[in-house]
User: Fold these one by one.
Assistant:
Number 1:
Amino acid sequence: MPTSTLLAVTRQDVNDVQCQALFVSRLRPSDNPTTDMIAEAIIGSVRRFGPDGCAGQMAQEFGDHPDAASGRMRWVRQLAVRAGRDTWPGGHDAAERQVAA
């Protein structure tokens, strides 16, 4: 009989996924993104690539363009801090459910 394993998703995991998803999103600094735009970008990237796919896309960019990628990641982390926990509709618990799904 197969058993299922429950994965514990920590807040750090969720923050990492948010940053990776923002990194691979189509948002640009010139968009001057609002909190709603940030949320839409995160959810769209996770739906498009999945959490592991976002990490893979980001890793590829760091390999191909390390200088540009590091600048983008600094910007993404600033966005994530500015947006805070409201980035995911429904708050942080919704983020954990979205990533775990």
Number 2:
Amino acid sequence: MAASEYATVLGVPVAIIGLAFSPLLVALAVTWWRRADRRALLVLYVLLLLGTAAVAYLTFLELFVIKAICLWCVSFAVVIILALATAGLALRRSS
């Protein structure tokens, strides 16, 4: 994936986008946890939905276009999906 034409978005490497995305998610989760601010949880959930769509697209590219699997990418995708499920459960319980 890193050597393919899909490795960048608007000139920015996809890996860098993922690295910037992760601390943002953690900051939102910590904000929600420490302040019990449901808005942070909602923003987190929306970003995780977008992240899930992005990793689904990138996984599709890996499997069917590039035909190469990146273990880091798969690991990141699994973490994003688990985080989405966790945030969804937290939203459900906080209503």
Number 3:
Amino acid sequence: MNDIDQPLAGFLDLGIAELGVRFDPDGCRKLLALARARREFGPHLFLSEEEFRGDPQLLGVSPRPGRNLIEPFDEALAFVEENSFFRALLDRLLGTGWEILRKKLVCAIPEAWMPSWLLAHVQDYGIPNLGPFIRPEYRDLTYFHGIDFHQDLIDWAGRTADFVTLYVYLDEVTPTQSPLHVLPGSHCHGGSVFPLAVERVGDCLWRYTDDRGRTLDLAEQVLTGSPGYAATWHPCVIHGTRPNMGARERLSLRYLVTRGPGGGGLLDEVNALIDGPLRLEVTQRHRDALGNVVIKGNALLGSPRRG
């Protein structure tokens, strides 16, 4: 077993690898300082209820090229992207010639910052992406308030599972600060349309029923960690977060990286073992064509599905 195979042990069977602290904590702190120098975080990020209801913009509010806080930060991101572990990891997962598909900062907003009208408005939203409620000048990163169990295929209708997610904590993430909740092994039946049929059957045990009626009983893993902690997972692995009950924002770095043109990486081996679809033409049904949430409920928070 070589140096890169050891941290990736389990990816083949579980679809996820906890990598531990693999990136320089000082680099994390410098990136955080740059982000916070460009963005003062706090309750002022939000539109008022009158502003939102007067001109609701439900779609097109996520970061994109030209509107992405970390686009000018190439030098500050070198502690990740020029790290020999980062490159060896992705070569092993995706084959040589891989490409970064998307990178951005993800912010778990403290619940205490959210106005009461907004908390009521997004109650039981499965995926409360807060972008529509954020002032337009601040929509250059992604803001969440807890996320129900989902697969990363959700944003990629019509695309094959040819990418992995790499997630890096930039600050200390404790159980109250919206850590990732993951169901290792949930990828083995391929993709299902969101919202997923997941129900709690024990303290840390969940039953997932895929779109073909097959069930898996899966143990939950909560990913807490220090600055520089990282994990990587397959796009069919089910994961989510609870709301941030801490006093400050939780900022993390999220990469989506697609396979090299020749493949040959561990992702191809995992995909060959999956008994289910690796591509979905429709990935979600909780919103209508205008972006309105029409199916509510959040399995991770114990609220029943309705709509």
Number 4:
Amino acid sequence: MATSRTIFYVYEHWRLDRDECFYVGKGRGSRAYSTKNRNRHHQAIVAKLSRTGSAFEVRIVASGLSEPEAFELERERIAFWRSSDVDLTNLTDGGEGVSGFRLSDETKKKLSEIGKKRGAPKLTKEQQEKASGWHRGRKRSSETCQKISQAKKGKSSTTKGRPSPLKGRSISLETRKLMSEKTIERWAKTREKCGGVIVGRKLTEPEKLAISERKKAYWRRWREKQNGDV
């Protein structure tokens, strides 16, 4: 049974659209699952995930820790991800503060600047192996797999390396002629909509006036529609 001294844990927030860690934290209770009192970078990512129909997953790295142990592990995880060129939303290198104590925005900014100048701390080989093995062999729940699947739906997949369905297929002269006629017809309609304007040619004053009037008429109809007059 965990004592009052070993109630802390270290957690990570993973974005499901990329399956990538974007935040490392230390906490206790329900802190890992709360989105309150997060910095603006963290809030921006959470808002984007919600807007695109995705979400983030909370992964507990280790629990039953004392506060010094949790701080130490937090520093190791942040250093590991930064040394792996992962763009975390953490403002500092971790391992600072007291549980329940909030840093001011000014202090956070100063700590962030100090951390950037100092750069990501280098890990020993032992620390790297230990850090990279936290999630090795970890199986995702069916709920998490479903969220990742939903987040990736509707996104275009790369076709690099795949053979084109038209590659090697010969097009008849009749088909080429038909395609050419359709292209000419499409461009004729486009020129007609643009009032016969040709790209690269300077417009005359009457042409500019006509385009201006058409734009004014369009936006007038749009405003009337928005106001319910149409």
